[in-house]
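Run folding on both entries below.
>entry_1
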Amino acid sequence: MARGAVVLMPAGLMLLLGVWGIRRQDAIWRDEAVTYDMAHRSLADLWPTLQHVDVVHGLYYVLMHVWFVGYDATLRGAFGDAVGLRLPSVAAMTVAAAGVALLGQRLVGRRAGLLAGFTFALIPVVQQYAQEGRSYATVCALIVWATYVLVLAAARPRRGLWLGYTALMLAACLLHEFAALALPAHGAAVVLARLPRRVLRSWLLASATVLAGLAPLAVFSTRQSAQISWLMWPDPLQLLTFAVLAVLGIACARVRVRSRGPIGLRALGVPLLLLPTLLLLLLSHVEPAYVDRYVLYYVVGFALLAGAALARLLRSAGERGQTRGRRLRRALAVVLLAAALLPVDVHLRSPDSRVDDVTAVAHAVREVAEPGDGLLFMPSRRRVWRATLPHDFRGLHDLAQAESPLASHTLYGTERSGDVIRDRMLAARRIVVAGDPDGQPADDNDQEIAKRSTLRAAFQVCSSREVRGAKITVYGRPGACGGGGGGGRRREVGGRVGGAPALRWAYGGPVWAWPVCGRPVCGQAVRGFPVRSLPSGRPPRPFPARPFPGSSPRSHSP
C-alpha cells in the first residue's frame, strides 16, 4: 500500500462527507449565528465585546473575521453564508482525518492507519462538527497533530519537535480552554510507555509552558462564567454516545496488536479516549461544564484503537490463521455497521439536527409581521435569531431593546427596564413575539416578567406557528387581530394602508389615542377611540417622527 494513500484516502472521504449536505437547506443554528455576528464585527468592535463576553472563543472569532473578509469578497455570492461558516470546519476535519491516519500508521502500520482514518471520518459526531461554524473541529485537528508530534518526539527527542508540540497544544487551548484536558492523556501515555526521564521532563516543560500561556485567558474567562450557567447535568444522549464508544474502544484495545515505537497504541489510545471526558465529568460535579463537543477529540482515541483492531481482524487470508470465510464475514459486519449509520448521517444534514433554525425563524417573522409592528424576543438572548438575516426584521420595532448588540458590545444587546418595556408594549397595537417553544423554562428577570404579564393582561393571540426550536406568535390589542390575524405584509393602495390613511405619527406627546390605523398618535380621539395617557406619560427614548410605517414597507431598519 502506497504511503500517500494512507493519508489521502481518509482525508478524501472526510472531505466528501464534509461537503455532502453542507448547506443544510441554509439552516443556521444559534451558536453559528453568534459566530457569524462576531466574525462580521470589525476588530475594533470585537475587542471590547470580548472584554464583556465570549472571550474563550476570541481567537476563533478573529480567525473567522479574517476568513470572511476574503470569503465575502469572492465566494459568498455563489455559495452563501451557511457554506462560508462551515468550510473552515470541513477543512479542519479533513486535516484531522489525515493526522489520525498518520498516527495509526506510526503506531501500528499502514493498514491500521488507513482504517483508523476511515473510522474517524465515519463517526457521526465527527461529521456533525465538520459541518458546524464553531471552533471544535479546528481544536480537534490541532490536538491530532500535537499528538502526532508527541509520538515523533518520544521516538527522536528534538528541540524543534517539542517546540512544535507546545505551539500546537497552546493554539488548541487558546481556541478552547478544555483542550487542556488532552494534556493529562498525553502525560498518561508518556508514563505508561515508560519513556526515559529526559522525555518526561521535556513533556512536563512543554505542558507547563502551555498552561502558563493559557493562564491569562483562563483567569479572565472566569469573570464570564455565567455564560455556561445554562448547563445542568450532562445530556443523556451525549453520555450514551461516549459510553458506547468507550466500551467499543476498550474492546478493540483487547485485540492483540503489535505496536511500533516507544509509545504503544494502548498507552496512547485508551487515555485519549477516556481521560478528557472523565475529567470533564468530574469537573461538572463542582460546576456543571460537560458538553461532548468540549472534548470532541476523545473520538481520536477510539479511531486509533478501532483502526488497529480492524486491521488485525480483516488481515489477509492465510495470515496468522485467518481464513477467507472468516475475513468475509468480518468485512460484511463492518459494512453493515457503516450502513446502519447512514440514517444518522442523513439526519445530521437536515435542519432538524440542530437545536433551532435561525433562518426559519427570520422567514417566519417576515411572513407574519406587518410594517410598524412591535417585536419582542423571549428570552432576550434569542435576539441572536436576527443576526444572520436582519433585513427580515426591517420595519419592526424592538420594544425591549435599549442598545443593539454591536453598540453595547454584547452578544444579544441590552434591554430596558421592565416598567419601560411595559409602557412601550401598551403603546403598540400588534406585537410579534419570537420565543422559545412551549415547555422551555422561563427566565425570571424583571424584563421577561414584564413581557409575559403585559401580553397576558392587555393582548390576545392573533396567530401562532412553530418552527424548529422557536415559536412565533402575533399578539394584538382587543379587536386588532382582524380576519387575517397577522397573515403577512399590508398592501399599499394610494397612500392608504388597509383602508386607513397613512397618517404621520410620533412618540413623545403626553396624550395618546388608538386610531383606526393602529398606531398611537398625539392629538385628539380618532373615530370614537378615547384619548388616554400612558402610565409613564411617554417612553423615555421616543421614536423620531416619521411617516406611518406601511407607506414605505421596507424603508425602515429596526
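>entry_2
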Amino acid sequence: MASEEELFASVDALLNEEPHLPPPAERARLREAAGITQARLATALKTTTQSVKNWENGRSEPKSPRLDAYQRLLKGWAAKYPAPGAAPAASVAATAPAASTELAASRVETADAPQASAVPAAAPARPAIRPAASSRRPATKKAAKPATDPRFPHGPLAVLDGDGCAYGVSGLVLDCPATTIVELVEWTLRESGLGAPKLNRYGKDSDPLIVLTAAATVKLGLPERLEGHEQRRSLRLPEDHPVVKQVAKAKWQLTQRGFGPWARIYRKAQGHERQCVQLAILSWDALDERSWPGVAEMEPADIARVLGVYAQRVITPRGSTAVSGLELMTALRPPTKPERDPETGNWISGHNPGSLGTEPMDPAPPEATPEHPVVVQSGWTGGFLNEEAYQWVRPVDSLSDEECLMPFAVGLDLNTAFLAAAARLVVGLSAPDHFVGPKFNPKIPGSWLVDLSHIELDPRLPSPFTPDGSRPTGPAWYQTHTVTYAQELGYDVHPIEAYLRRETGAYLDPWHDRLKTAYVDTLADLGVTKDLDDRQFLAAMEQHKQVAPALAAVLAAIKATVKGGVGKLRERPQGRQYKAGERWPALARPTWRPDIRAAVISKARVNMHRKLNNMAKMTGLFPLAVLSDCVVYPSPGASPLDFLPYAASGKPQPGGFRLGPTPGLAKVEGVQEMLWAIDLMEKGLNPARHIKGGDAVLDEGE
C-alpha cells in the first residue's frame, strides 16, 4: 500500500488536472480513485489538524513529512481556488483547518446540521435589480435576513406583480421579463438567484417559490380566479388549458396535484441539480385567510417579507401550512442518506436511521380509519383508537352556588399544545406487531386494548380517557400515553391485546425544536419575551397583534403549521367519487402515520388533564368546559391572575396552568360574564368555543 505522502501527492496531481475545483461528490470520487480509504483519511486528517492547532498555539513547529505534503496540497488549493471574496494568497494556518473540515465533512457533521455547498457553481446571469419603490415600504420593522448561501443570493422566494417586478425578501426588486409560465420557470432557475439550502445534510435544497399576484396571473395567461362547485383549493386547470399544454410542450411536468393554487413545475433532476419551481397563486386562494390573516391583501413587497420570515424560520412554503408542516418533518428527517456498498465500494442510497424511510407503511387495524383498505379488506370489527382533542362541557347541575356567583368566566389557551406534546415524544418507526395478553410497558409506543371503565374520577373533571370526557364503558383501544396516565393515577392496567412497534425513536424532535424556536422568536419580535413577569406578559399579549400585523400573520402561520402538520399524518380521502376500501393518494407517502398523530394528541390531552387535576388540588377550582387546548374557569376577577396558584414568593406553582410565551404555557383566550357561560352550558353549547368572541375554530389536528 502506498504511503500517506504518496496518497496526498496522488490527490494533488489529480486536482491539478482539473480546470475547476470539483464539487464534493467529485472530490470523493478522486480520493477513491487515489486509493484513499475513509479510515486512513480520517486518521490522517485528525493527526494533521492537531499538528496545525499545535503550530498555531506556538507549541511546536510541524516537521512531519505528512504535514509538509498536506500543507503543499492546501497551498495549492488556496492558490488555485480562493474562496469568494477572499484574497488570492492565504496563510496555511488560516486555510488548513477550513480545508480539513471540508474534507472530513462526512465524518464530523451532525445529522441535523444544515449543509451549504462549500464552493458555488458558476454563477448564472443575474437579473437587473431595481431599488424598492418608496410607496411600498415594509410593513414590519424586522425583515428576513438575507440569504447567506452564495448559490441563492436573492433569498428563497419572490412575489411577482403585473409590471414584471419580482419582490424579494430583503427589499430588493428584480426585473422579470417572463410573459409565459414556461419563461417564468426558466428565468427562476437560471437567472433569479432564488432558493434555500437544505435543512439537513442528507436532505434537498428548497425549490424557489414564485408568488403570483392577480395581475401577474392574468399577464401569464392564467384565469384570475378558479371557479367551480368544489372548494377552490381543490380546483385545478383542465388538462386541455393552453398553459398546461404549453408546459407539457416545453418538456416540463406537473405533479399529481396538477395546476392549482400551489403548482409545482419540474423536470427530472440532472445529477445533483434539481429543476423545480413552486408557484403560489394569490387570487386562487393559495394563502388561506385563517392561516395567513391579511397577507393576500398586502402589497407585493410586504407579502415577500412575511413569507420570507416564515421561510427563514420554518421552511419555504410548499403548499398550505398543513402541507408545509408535513414537508418540514421530511426536510429535517430525510428518509435516505448515502452509504457505501460493501460489495462494490460504490456510494448508494441507504436508510437514514430515525426517519420514516421511503416506503409507506400500513397501520394496525385499530389505528386506521374505517374506510382504510386494512379495515375493509380484513373485515375488522374490533374498534378503533379514539385519541382526539377534548370537547367537553361540565354538567350544569355539578356547579356549586359559589361557582355560579362568580362574576367572570376566563378562558385560558395553551400555546401550541400539540407542539409541546411533540417534545421528546417517542414514536414507532417500524411496522406494528400483534400481541395477545401483553404486559403493559410505558416505554413502548403502540395501541393497547384495555378496560379502563373501572376507574372512577371526580365528575367535575373530564375523563382523561375519552375526547368527550365521559367515563369509558368497557374495553377500548388507547395509545401508550393514555394507558401510562392511568397508571400514574394509581390504577392497575391489564391489556387484552396490543399492536406495538419494535423500532422506536423521537422522530419529531427536530420538527419540534425548529417550530418552537420560530414561535418564541416571532413572539419576541412582537414584544412578548421570556423575561416579562405575568402582568407584563398579559399586557404585551393584549397589544402584540397591533405591534406588527405582518409578524402577527407569521405567528398565525406557525401555529397553523403545527396543527396542520399533525393533522396531515392522518389525511382522510377527499372527493365524492371515493369508495371505501380504495387507496387514496395520501396513503402512498411514508408520512401517512395515524399512530404518530394519535401519540401527539393523546399526550396533549393527558397533559391538559394533569393540569386540570393539579389545579383542583391546589385551588379547589374546577373547569366549566374544555375545547382542545382551551379551558374555561370561573373567576372572581377578569384576569387569570385572580385564580391561578402562586407561591408566597410570587412565583407560579408548578403543575398547574402557568402564563408565558413558550409552548405548553398559557395565555388568555377570552373573558366573559359567568351568567353568559352558564346560559351556553344550559343550551348544551361549549363556552370554550365562544369565549373569544364569535365561533372559535376547533382544529382537532384533522
